[in-house]
Amino acid sequence: xxxxxxxxxxxxxxxxxxxxxxxxxxxxxxxxxxxxxxxxxxxxxxxxxxxxxxxxxxxxxxxxxxxxxxxxxxxxxxxxxxxxxxxxxxxxxxxxxxxxxxxxxxxxxxxxxxxxxxxxxxxxxxxxxxxxxxxxxxxxxxxxxxxxxxxxxxxxxxxxxxxxxxxxxxxxxxxxxxxxxxxxxxxxxxxxxxxxxxxxxxxxxxxxxxxxxxxxxxxxxxxxxxxxxxxxxxxxxxxxxxxxxxxxxxxxxxxxxxxxxxxxxxxxxxxxxxxxxxxxxxxxxxxxxxxxxxxxxxxxxxxxxxxxxxxxxxxxxxxxxxxxxxxxxxxxxxxxxx
Amino acid sequence: xxxxxxxxxxxxxxxxxxxxxxxxxxxxxxxxxxxxxxxxxxxxxxxxxxxxxxxxxxxxxxxxxxxxxxxxxxxxxxxxxxxxxxxxxxxxxxxxxxxxxxxxxxxxxxxxxxxxxxxxxxxxxxxxxxxxxxxxxxxxxxxxxxxxxxxxxxxxxxxxxxxxxxxxxxxxxxxxxxxxxxxxxxxxxxxxxxxxxxxxxxxxxxxxxxxxxxxxxxxxxxxxxxxxxxxxxxxxxxxxxxxxxxxxxxxx
Lengths: 338, 252
Description:
The complex is a heterodimer.
Chain A: H1 13-33, H2 41-50, H3 55-89, H4 101-115, H5 117-120, H6 124-144, H7 150-173, H8 178-188, H9 197-215, H10 218-223, H11 228-233, H12 238-260, H13 266-275, H14 282-307, H15 315-337
Helix pairs in contact in A: 1-3, 1-14, 2-3, 3-9, 3-12, 3-13, 3-14, 4-6, 4-7, 4-8, 4-12, 6-7, 6-12, 9-12, 13-14, 13-15
Chain B: E1 3-12, E2 15-25, E3 30-34, H1 41-49, E4 54-58, H2 65-71, E5 72-75, H3 87-92, H4 105-115, H5 131-144, E6 149-153, H6 161-176, E7 180-184, H7 188-194, E8 197-202, E9 205-210, H8 212-215, H9 218-225, E10 227-234, E11 237-245
Parallel strand pairs in B: 3-7, 3-8, 5-6, 6-7
Antiparallel strand pairs in B: 1-2, 1-4, 8-9, 10-11
Helix pairs in contact in B: 4-5
């Protein structure tokens, strides 16, 4: 008789959450004290909390604090949205941009740059990006129908993404001058540099709303492990679950793109990193993936400042550069296990 | 009654795949739902649960989703396990309609695992089990729901003979304990031996309903299944063995 393999004991969930929390807090502080101004960490933090120290207070409160908050909040949002999307579609390759929100939000932002209105009113860019995200949600829900299944949602998302992508290319194509074109291209690479507390105030309500909507989907996502029919028979209202998911993901991703541009791979990688540690349960993955996303984005944003402080290395470029090979590694590991 | 259907009709487009089926299922019944491929077995079960739009009356479809989930468990034919969760967590999904109600969820999971002979599998990754073991784990999930009525769509397809018999025994036991089971089956031999009642569907219509001995007549087998078979009472119970096709409909 072949002996049973010893059961893999899951690491204690609470310990995992605490470790991730500690990591995120450490990276948040690191994000506050790293920067081209070269302020000693102790003095910087003191200036941040006490408001004593002139220019240092300004740097800490107006430049680094918004940047660190956005890194934390957007990273968490992308990680959360990615975990929810993968759970809902029961596909580890799903990412938050799949339903077309990021492409539509980017289109809105690109239009704001193209028309130049953001030069006179700085918040026009994120506001137009949010409008694009909102519009895409309406189109998605219309295309996929009120009772549509996961497949119709994916197809509707691909349609919206392609259309928004094509329109973005059209705007680039018709750019009035090379400066506008390069501005659009650089914006699309994603960055947290030079964001203000106004950006934070604009994005946070949407991020909080999205997180609150997604946080209630855990039980439904778990039940979906058995397929849509079995989940429905367990009392899960799939129509409502899907609505919460689409609205929640759109709020998270739309607001993220609106203030940071397109930052890829975080929403795809974060759930993968944590899936095994939480025993693959979709509900447990939500919080772990959100914390991991926050850690990844904070670390990546610090790296852009450390690696090439003079060159304004874009955040989205870095996450893709590091994310893609890492993703390949995960795929290879998965292929070996099957 | 655990289930009452009155003139239940399920349409795919304009074509009715289940037509005006009326029946009731009482506690203590282990019902085998039989009929050839495409007879409408799955559509009848899903229509009864309210998972497919249907006309007529179904006592289950009339309930709220929450109440229905506590009244009836559903085991779909597609054996889907999307993530590599542990067998215990998989079975625990059956407790979804009960969570937060102060019931003994862990006890129900352990009991269901024990019934399906999976006690030593509880910490294994569900997706790494063999197909038959996964099927048993999914049956255990439905058992953990502890609903009075279990609707199962081809629950024993692909199981080894011992697991098929053991599963039918579990279903018969559920009925003896005061529940009821409706299982769609293709193995008429197991249906004849373990079910208290057989319901025969043909082209969407209910054509026979009663104890196995009364239902499995040579005429019905010829008319509905296009086969002839050997049927006899033995000390071990009813023995049914299909012998040959009749090619009434031309065969293949």
